[in-house]
Design goal:
The chain has about 180 residues and is mainly alpha-helical. Helices cover about 70% and strands about 10% of the residues. The strands form two sheets. A two-stranded antiparallel sheet has the order 1-2. A two-stranded antiparallel sheet has the order 3-4. The longest helix has 30 residues. The protein starts with a helix and ends with a strand.
């Protein structure tokens, strides 16, 4: 019976572990396996892409991408960096959810930020070891920013949930708002 209790105790960590494994799965793929350019070329023409991309030049790591000259590369770049933000925002949110039983909010926040930073660094280290991938410190910073956005979003949602929950009561199956 004690084994079942200990398994149930660590059950909230399962989404964190699964999301972390998903991150490492993606970072182990080659650039070609992750490329969305074939789909972009299939769905859009270069002229159509040129009409929507801004006049912008991006310098990132050791590359320069000129949106008006390389619209497909630019869109893929924006997609890739947005996915970094999204993936690490979700990692921070599920990590915070998993350690919610901790009553000290500062400890929670510190643990989540440290975990996101650790995974971001390990992810870039994994990419550095791969011949087909490049690693960049800018990606670690972007990942941490995504984690902070996810943490802010999760805590805001949790705050609003508790505020709404405290402000209403159930009466005959209807929601009645109370003034406090």
């Amino acid at each position: 019976m004690n084994h079942i209790r200990s398994i149930i105790k660590f059950l909230p960590l399962a989404p964190v572990l699964l999301w972390t494994l998903l991150i490492f799965h993606f970072s182990s793929q080659s650039h070609q396996e992750q490329s969305i350019q074939p789909i972009l070329h299939k769905w859009f023409t270069k002229e159509g892409m040129l009409s929507v991309v801004p006049e912008l030049t991006v310098h990132y790591h050791h590359a320069t991408i000129r949106a008006k000259e390389q619209p497909f590369e630019f869109i893929e770049f924006v997609f890739r960096k947005s996915s970094h933000l999204f993936i690490y925002a979700v990692l921070a949110a599920v990590s915070c959810w998993a350690i919610l039983p901790l009553k000290r909010i500062f400890t929670q926040l510190l643990m989540v930020v440290l975990y996101v930073t650790l995974i971001a660094c390990a992810d870039e280290w994994n990419q550095m070891r791969s011949v087909q991938r490049t690693s960049a410190i800018q990606d670690v910073v972007l990942d941490i920013c995504g984690g902070l956005l996810g943490l802010i979003g999760f805590l805001t949602g949790l705050f609003l949930f508790h505020k709404i929950r405290r402000g209403r009561t159930l009466w005959r199956g209807e929601v009645r708002w109370q003034r406090k």
